[in-house]
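Section 3.1: Structural characterization of target chains.
Under the original work plan, the team committed to producing a structural model for every single-chain target entering the pipeline before any wet-lab resources were allocated. The record below documents one such target. The sequence was received from the expression subgroup and is listed exactly as submitted; it comprises 427 residues.
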Amino acid sequence: MSTRVLVIGSGGREHALAWGLARSPHVDEVICAPGNAGMATLGECMPVVPTDPAAVADLSAKLDADLVVVAPDDPLVAGVVDAVQAAGIQAFGPNAAAAKLEGSKAWMKDVLVAAGIPTARYATFTAGGEADADAFLETLPGLYVIKTDGLAAGKGVVVTESLAQARDAVRAYLSGAAFGDAGRTCVIEEGLRGPEVSLFALCDGRRAQVIAVAQDHKRAFDGDRGPNTGGMGAYSPVPFVGTDVVDEMMERAVLPTLAELERRGAPFRGTLFCGLMLTPEGAKVLEYNVRFGDPESQVLIPRLASDLFVHLSESAAGELRTPIALTDATCVGVVLASEGYPPAPIRKGDVIRGLDRAGAQEGVVVFHSGTAHNDQGEVVANAGRVLTVTAVGTDIVEARDRAYAAAVEISWPGVHYRRDIGAQALP
């Protein structure tokens, strides 16, 4: 019998997942929906609206998929996993009840407090509560974090030391001017200081296994300057995060969160993405996401020595058994973005040159985040974040050198990328 896996999504995370699944000896066919130009090199890409539960379930049944991997946050929050499971098909990812952990930051903070997990002091405000929000801001020590309650494509966060800027952000959020309904409820947090890292754990409802730790680079430009983005690059492992920190966060954060979600009738199966701040008082949870990260996936999956399909299938079935194994390699991923990113409007349709030259270099994989084919069959830029040039090496120096040597081979008008990805890890 052949094994067919359907990957839902069209970004760099989904390309990395499809690439990892295609390497499994248990997988005969990978289909992506809707996919992108890079994912089309791995298997057929089929049209679907990822956030339409019925459409995804219908496609899964039509393809007779053995496993459906629902990768992005918005389909998870919309209940795509629920619909696929209701059709009798195994699906990887949390159901809608558990995905609320990312779908509502206010609810997520409530879960953290209920589970006794170390996190920043916060309060939640809704439209009309601007005066109360101002009063709460004045109680904070001088670093302010304002977040949309709902999904905002990784961009709904303002971090500032300016009280005036914080107040302006609150008003833009609550009025709907900044992020529409996603921001009409917002969370204000005390800003924490220290290195920020991401811990990824695979969960089956009650148990969890560590996948790895990575560090993302959110700001658009070198030196952590410019606006927040969906992520401009990442690397893994993170040398200043020891096993003591990982073990502590599994015991003090991940496992208590699973227990609290089960108590609330929302057992969590899938990837739990734990954003951590390493403060002088110890590690604290900034927030949870309910899926693999992007661009973190692009540096985690190439490090896997064990079988990605086996791990995702066991998580979906609620029975983690196979230990996750990683290589000793370091992996660095550099995101190549379009002119003007962020914010919109984004220039689209430019032909990308040099993909073959970059991908042929030792240790390099080029994952597509926002690409398409034009009428001539050429690969073109089609979004803000276009590619992630990923390289593995024996250490951070070799991995960075390989990634940047490949990145310079790729060009299109206006392409830009950070030159300091992984610099914090350099010896």
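The first strand starts at residue 4 and ends at 9.
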